[in-house]
Here is the input.
Amino acid sequence: MVKRLMAAATSLVLAGSLAACGDDKPETSAASGSGGSGDSITMGFAQVGAESGWRTANTKSVQEAAKAAGIELKFSDAQQKQENQLKAIRSFIQQKVDVISFSPVVETGWDTVLMEAKRANIPVILTDRAVDSKDTTLYKSFLGSDFVLEGKKAGEWLVKQGDAADVNKDGSVKVVELQGTTGAAPAIDRKEGFEEAMKANPKIAIAASQTGDFTRDGGKKVMESFLKAQKDIDVVFAHNDDMGLGAIEAIEAAGKKPGKDIQIITIDAVKDGMTALAEGKINYIVECNPLLGPQLMDLAKKVVAKQDVPQRVLTEETAFDQAAAKAALASRQY
Ligand code: GZL
Here is the structure.
């Protein structure tokens, strides 16, 4: 009991200082179903931000699953800034939470804070994005997608299109790429997977590649610059739906037909992306499942109970063409 009182006192101060910093949103704490009795689990969750439809769905899944599991959730939104995530994790350590989980906004710069959590005997579960730490004892498990495979699926679809229906008379395919957040695991890995698949048809070439930071506005601005700088773009490969939707706005403003004059391939399969796919403005979407909440809470209970858990838990996901999107749209959860 004393531990929790001390922690509560500390958290009030820290929450105040966090709020005072103004950089990130103060933590929110959803009371658990059990009223925070001694045996309930408290999780500190440091979220990337609210940059995309995928992230919003991921946050909803984590918050709803914590409530359903009777786990008290201290939630922090880092607004896509690593320093805010680091601050939140250190606050969770001060508050002596039972388990910490976060989606690292970028791959690098986590070893020190993970060591601090380890020294405080607080287990860490990574979700969604990975870290580049070589010491895998710094976290108990990583729950999330295989981003290289997602990029590969996107590239393999394009290679198949190229074989089946030449995009240009000479068979050449000019691609522009809207990258995710610089340094983020999904951005690094999706690019790697796409380029790997493209090798099957050397006539497919990436003429320009730039980060749109996973946001709709970022995708629109970068696509506007590509349309000015590049002649005869055939395909846009966007690392997420939101940047692809921004690209659609730019393509239409330039008087071209997205999905026809310029084909668009994206990753995520959130509702807005799937709607554009069903309408024919996007040509192919590789799914990246944000509904990680239930699996995360199961892992958290096992980790707090000192049970063994897998170092890596992969999420199941598929891909959609326009016909599949029309059939799936009504039943999509996010
Ligand atoms: C992928 C996730 C990415 C999504 C984007 O798991 O980290 O971040 O693809 C989101 O939509 O912003």
